[in-house]
Each structure stands twice: as structure tokens, then as C-alpha cells.
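Protocol step 6 of 9: fold each sequence in the batch and record its C-alpha cells directly after the sequence line. For illustration, a two-sequence batch is reproduced in full.

Sequence one:
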Amino acid sequence: MTERVALITGAGSGIGRAVSIALASMPVTVVITDIAADGLETTAKLVGQSGGNCHSHIMDVTKRESVLEVCVKTGETAGNIDILVNCAGWDALMPFIETDEVFWDKIIDLNFKGILRTTQAVLPGMMSQNWGRIINISSDAGRVGSLMEAVYSGAKGGIIAFTKTIAREVARNGITANTICPGPTETALLDEIIDAGDDGERVISSMTRSVPMKRLGKPEDVAAAVRFLVSEGASYITGQTLSVSGGLTMA
């Protein structure tokens, strides 16, 4: 595989961090981005320890100017962005009837529009070189729905439809676009959601029992799927939605 440059959002923890480490083990320069400076510093150290080449930038996917600025800096310091992996996301468990438009806007702006911003920023460069990989991290909540995650599920479902459409639009340019849908996964976001409730242990136990493999996912499970979709072995795979959920969702 020719050495490539990968821009990864939400790389300061969880799935984004695992993806950064996994791709850095390939001939890929990883450009890690997040809004959390401490998390980025830790990820950069881990990538360095693995022998990978890494550039780090604070980036807020809810702000177009921030996205464009980082893309320009990346072009100047690392080269054209060949691979985009959108991992940034956030949610809070809440019955839909109790939500308001401020909450809706926050969820949609980060989880859905953030992907629109990054994709629009990197596509021209990918199209000009007739090669690119776009991998969007959605959620099984976007495929089957999830209790107390109505707006989040809607945004994640939007990612799936958006990715399929982009895959159709740029297939002739040698660009693939695919979606990965994790099931319940051991991340800081899951911990945050559980800690906000009164019965975290019961929720975790219930999640684990519902998975045929009887364990929650790990960020590395998702990263392995990303690594495959980035590889030349996946060059004829586009517009697909892959659940990484231990069999929780089968379709």
C-alpha cells in the first residue's frame, strides 16, 4: 500500500484513539484531531510508541472554520488527505419527550453535520487524485433504534444514508465510502452515559446479556474493521454498512 495520510476525528479517546493506533501501524501518517487537548496528547504518545508517524491538531467538527483550518494545515505539513475516519460523537440518554431543540441541535450538529463538514472539506483533494477512503462511525442505534436515544439514533441513521449517497457520487473517482456501526462498546462516552444514571451496573449487565458473544465491544474491534476498509483489499467495497456488535445486530 502506498503511504497515505489519514485524518481522524474524535481521536482523543475511545474508538478514535484505537483507530489512530491501528492505522499508524500501516504505511499511514495519522492526523489526529479532537477538541480535548489532553486526550490528543495521550493518543499522540501511544501512536509514537507504536512507531507511527503522527500530527496532532485541536479541531471542533461543529465549526466549519476549524475543520477547514486543520485541513489546510494538514496539506502543508503532511500532504493531501487520502483517508477520512469520522469518529467524533456524543449523546446523553433521555426520553424524547423530555428533550428540547437545544439538545436536538447539539446532537445533530456534532454527530451528523460534523461529518458533512469534514467530508466536504476532504473530497476535492481525493477527487483530484482519483483515490480516497471515507469511513464514518455510526451506531447500531442508527440501524434499529435505541431506547432513550431518539435524536442520536436519527442522526446516526442519517450518517448511513449520507454515506451511501456519497459512495454513489464519487465511485468513479476511485473513492470508497462505508459506514461502521458499533454496538455497545467500552468507551468514555458509554461510561459517561452510565455514570449519569442511578443503575449503571444493571445497564451494563443488561447490555452484555443482550450480545450473543456475551461481552461488550472494545474500541480495537472497531479499529480492526476500519483498518480493513482502508486497505487495498477493500477497494471494491463501497456504500456498505458493517455492524461490529458481537452479533447483536444481524442484517
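Sequence two, same batch, same settings:
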Amino acid sequence: MKIIIGLGNPGKEYEATRHNVGFIFLDNLQKKWSFPGFESNKKFNAEISKGTVNSRDVILVKPQTFMNLSGEVARAILDFYKLTPEDILVIQDDLDIMIGKYKIATDSSSAGHNGINDLIEKLGTQKFARIRIGIGEEKDGALVCRLGAHDFVLGKFKEEEMGKIGMLKEDILKEADKFATS
């Protein structure tokens, strides 16, 4: 069994914000794999969609704890299914990567991302796979150093930014396919 956790914040006011890019890509995976719609699961405090990919059980997870407590959800799911951190893939936003780019990470620090900090703390390791999707602002082809990151990540994507995120869709879905079937 594989678990794919998209990081984000629950509630309408956070939809389509930069910090919710993990939720956005989970919606894409759910549609691509024809999984059932997300349903609230009180035991895990998450929205869950379950299905199979090439005969492997996969659970898509949207924590409803808010970003900074995402580790609670991951820990509960791993304990319930008797899985290890190597069985999860986290899809997250990353302010230090230019919008329209992404990186794959395994066994790397949180780089100050509070949701990842909580996951590392609750799982007791940083040895889990991540797709780090860039939301960093670009100016003249370079990444802009941000002050006031909190307000920026909770801001809605501009139309041009959503276009760049959309261009990553196929690559991210391929990466998730590889993880789900490994």
C-alpha cells in the first residue's frame, strides 16, 4: 500500500492558494486514476480517496488539521495500516523553487516548511519521498527573496502562475505513478 499526502489547509478561503498546491495535485491524481471522490474520515482527520493503481492499493490524503499539524495525520495513517515513512509521498509547495519548476526529494530537511517540520517530527525521520512544487516568485528570470512569506503562501495564484502550475501537471502525475507502482 502507498499513501500520497497533499499538503494544504482546509476550507474555502484557502482553495487555490499557493500553500494548497498539494491539494490541487491530489485532485488531479484522483481524476486521473478514476478514484472515488474525497470523503471525510474522522479517525484520521483527513479527506481520503482510495483506489488501486496497477494492482497496488493507494490512498490519497488531504489532512484537515491545517498545514502545520500535517504530521498528526500521517502518523495516524501509518500506524493504522502498519506502514513506514518510506510508504508515503508528500506533495508540497516550496517557496525556494521558482514557480513552474519542481524537485523530487527524499531524506532532506524541511527547509523551514512548517508542514514538513511537523511531518519530520511526528514520523521521527525525514526519509520519505516528496514532490516539492515551486511557488517562488520570479522576476527577470530569477527567484525573488521574499519577506512576508506567510501572506504570500496564503495568497491566491495569479492567472499566469496557475498556467505555470498547470504545465507541471503531466510531470507530477508521472512522478506519482512511479511512486504508486514502485
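Proceed to step 7 once all outputs are recorded. Observation for sequence two: DSSP finds six helices and nine strands in the chain.
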